[in-house]
């Protein structure tokens, strides 16, 4: 484990926030009100865990059938131990205009491309001292900040294997892992892992009183759903998640295969590793650091290429079951648009801006665009396109605005 991280399990009382570090709403003696905006597999499972942890939680979701199912049966979460149903208040997005009571914490779980409108939708319901947390893939923190301001924003990395094909029912295959932090908090010396603890260590407070208060409000909430790490550089942490995502989400989806099967297709392991390595090189060129995410440390002197390979191995080893489908493939199988522009597309655009070549990500993006346009079926046969056998023309042919 990196020397920049300290676990709170068994921590002394000196590591627990003082009485002044109360959750939002504590000063008035009430329980903080929490909204989970976007109740897909991740959001619904988080909402259920938070309710079971004693929190006051409501769901806001755009999928009418999902809202109806949750109202009728609760959120059903299937894990290794069986299925647990949890009653959670659920609102359709069309109901938001009728709501009046403010939310102290808003966890945003919609697709990255839906971030701006979703945060605008709930902005009137965010308490004056409330916090909005982007529990998403992609680099969504600037969009949230643009709506509610940086003083009410936290970024968050989430890692989990979960799926939702039936409204209101989640199949969660692995535990959740979170990294949460405030933009501009890179002055923190270290970070703290939290697994059900009730606060954050002094290192988190070094980001400044306002950021520390946001973290002290949110960390105990997320700890009801999984392991939480406070990041001293959340933008770099988000980029490291993007490194992992660029390697495995879209690459396996265009093959229409579970991740464990896709990585075994001839040539695909190399493609995945290089897609991640390109993303890591772009991150470094943009001023980001290689930082630990989901318990994958960064040994001293580790290269971007080496760490990208480590992250891919971490995902395959800890967050992949034989039938795990990535979120991109789940979206396509449900007939929905996926986050290809926010994942490999972001790597390609940032690479072009910074002068860093990203040929593998360009090929992945080009093939994925053809799948989404309906001109190419997702199939194992697409491996040859990603491996470059026939992919160069397709990569040059992606729409001009993409980079």
Molecular structure report:
- This protein has two domains: 5-232, NAD(P)-binding Rossmann-like Domain (Rossmann fold); 236-397, N-(1-d-carboxylethyl)-l-norvaline Dehydrogenase, domain 2, CATH 1.10.1040.
- It has helices spanning 41-52, 64-73, 115-122, 141-148, 202-205, 209-222, 234-253, 259-262, 268-285, 304-318, 327-333, 344-354, 359-373, 383-387, 392-396; strands spanning 5-7, 33-37, 56-61, 75-79, 82-86, 89-92, 103-108, 126-135, 153-159, 162-166, 169-172, 176-181, 191-194, 226-230.
- The longest helix has 20 residues, at 234-253.
- With 403 residues, it is α/β, with parallel strands linked by helices.
- Helix content is 39%, strand content 19%.
- The two termini are 37 Å apart.
- It has a ten-stranded mixed β-sheet, sandwiched between helices. A four-stranded mixed β-sheet has the order 5-4-11-10.
């Amino acid at each position: 484990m990196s020397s920049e991280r300290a676990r709170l399990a068994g921590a002394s009382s000196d590591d627990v926030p003082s009485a002044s570090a109360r959750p939002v709403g504590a000063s008035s003696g009430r329980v903080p009100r929490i909204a989970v905006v976007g109740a897909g597999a991740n959001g619904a499972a988080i909402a259920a865990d938070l309710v079971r942890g004693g929190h006051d939680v409501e769901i806001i979701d755009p999928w009418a059938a999902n809202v109806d199912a949750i109202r009728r049966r609760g959120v059903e979460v299937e894990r290794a131990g069986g299925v647990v149903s949890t009653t959670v208040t659920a609102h359709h997005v069309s109901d938001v205009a009728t709501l009046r009571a403010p939310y102290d914490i808003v966890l945003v779980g919609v697709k990255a491309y839906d971030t701006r409108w979703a945060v605008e939708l709930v902005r009137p319901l965010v308490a004056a001292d409330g916090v909005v947390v982007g529990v998403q893939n992609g680099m969504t923190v600037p969009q949230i900040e643009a709506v509610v301001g940086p003083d009410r924003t936290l970024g968050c990395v989430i890692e989990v294997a979960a799926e939702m094909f039936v409204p209101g029912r989640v199949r969660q295959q692995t535990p959740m892992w979170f990294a949460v932090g405030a933009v501009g908090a890179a002055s923190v010396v270290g970070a703290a892992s939290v697994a059900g603890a009730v606060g954050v260590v002094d290192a988190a407070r070094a980001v400044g009183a306002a950021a520390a208060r946001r973290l002290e409000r949110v960390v105990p909430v997320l700890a009801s759903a999984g392991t939480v790490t406070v990041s001293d550089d959340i933008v770099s942490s988000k980029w490291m998640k993007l490194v992992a995502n660029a390697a495995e989400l879209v690459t396996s989806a265009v093959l229409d295969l579970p991740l464990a099967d896709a990585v075994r297709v001839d040539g695909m392991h190399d493609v995945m590793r290089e897609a991640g390595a390109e993303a890591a090189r772009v991150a470094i060129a943009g001023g980001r650091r290689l930082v630990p995410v989901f318990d994958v440390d960064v040994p001293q002197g580790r290269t971007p290429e080496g760490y990208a390979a480590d992250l891919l191995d971490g995902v395959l080893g800890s967050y992949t079951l034989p039938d795990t489908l990535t979120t991109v493939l789940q979206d396509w199988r449900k007939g929905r648009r996926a986050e290809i522009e926010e994942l490999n597309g972001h790597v390609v655009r940032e690479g072009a801006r910074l002068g860093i070549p990203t040929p593998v990500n360009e090929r992945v993006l080009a093939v994925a665009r053809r799948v989404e346009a309906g001109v190419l079926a997702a199939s194992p046969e697409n491996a040859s396109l990603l491996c470059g056998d026939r992919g160069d023309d397709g990569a040059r042919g992606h729409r001009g605005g993409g980079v």
